[in-house]
Amino acid sequence: MELLSGPALAWQQYRSLLRKNAALAWRHRRSSALQLLSSLLFIFLIFCIDRAVRSRFSYTTAYQNVRDPRALVAPPIPPCEDKFFVKTPCYDFLWSGGGSARVPPLVDAIRRNNPGRPIPAEKVLGFTTPDEVDAWLFANPMRCPGALHFQDINATQMSYGIQTNSTPVARRGTYEDPTFKFQIPLQVAAEREMARLILGDPNFSWTVGFKEFAHPATETFSTIAQAGPTFFLAIAMFGFVFQISALVTEKELKLRQAMSIMGLYESAYWLSWLTWEALLTLLSALFTVLFGMMFRFDFFLNNSFGILFILFFLFQLNMLGFAFMISTFVAKAASATTVGFAIFIIGFLTQLVTTFGFPYSNTYEAYYRTIWSFFPPNVFAQALNILGKATATPEDKGISWNQRKTCQSFETDCIITVDDIYIWLISTFFLWFILAIYFDNIIPNVNGVRKSVFYFLTPSYWTGKGGKMRGQSLFKCAVVLYHVFSCIM
Length: 489
Description:
single chain, alpha/beta, D-Maltodextrin-Binding Protein, domain 2, 2 domains, four-stranded mixed β-sheet, two-stranded antiparallel sheet, 8 strands, 56% helix, elongated, disordered C terminus
């Protein structure tokens, strides 16, 4: 058997460890599938939230670009039961006529000619004066949405007043606008029948339409920007917890120590894990973007595919490096889930703060942003916020690949761009990876053995001299790797 050394041995160990990681993934294929496909579940949950939010905001056009508003033509007087929180029995409207003989026939015409729904006589209550109407409304709250007060001046003149409860109320997330729902229908009906009465023509045509002004969206809301950070962090946490658990298990069972004693290169060990997990992260990021496009989110359809894919990949890769570093402080594999849950809660809270604008605005000092950006979920949440605002309405075109370095027109405080976030995610990934290797060497292992805090300053660490292995040790190292791989399979 030819004994290898140097780069050739490191390459052999790297390939063996890579096969070992692949075997572990196949052995725990349910966990691997969950890590890859968890994005489908969480994007479906975001989809459900998005539909619920759209349903809640369906009563208003504040979140839409309205270019040609639809006219509200001849709205009928609605039944009193349609009013929120009404008490029954109720009345569609009350009226007072000052004792004029022309008012009761006028009220009957309003009832009969109500578009699409003649109003029964028992659903209308008449009084002589407005004061009597006020007394009845005070004694019977929430039993009538509005009242009409007529004043007969002469044969060609008649005036009227409308009395409604103008307080908007909400029920199950839906707001009721008393002006459009009750006041305008009463106004249209009263003026229509008064014109017919004064003109003496019961067939006089009366068509009135109301429409709002054309306007851009005065409010913006992106479900991805608001709820996405939490759910996408949860996707990354699957790989985060699995990675910590795998690294700590090898440390706890002394498998890695056995391989190290027999000559395992640290570079081969860490690079094998990095390569395998980076491959899973690549697939997970790809599936996340594809599933988002499958559910037809404007966020995924209008923003550049490359921007989104690289963002999700770099974020999950960053969390992978963070998991490498955290694993050096964990001694028991059973603690991996607890640590992962704690990181998730902290990430959820800091992302929530980031969504509200801290610290990526001119209001805060630069050092706040620098410190805040070291934690991966924070810059990721800011990226989702920027991309979400770029697709807040269906007409927004999103951000193209060439625009990733520039500030967008909707940003009043342009502190950080998508490209800056890429740089943060890449640089902090290397920081976590280097710290993982450093802490792994200076923190005592299961036998209490550790290296000096400044071990990397010694020439022997870089040249390999002073710790040269004999040929028999190299052979034993290969045998140990073979047995470890056989046990896993």
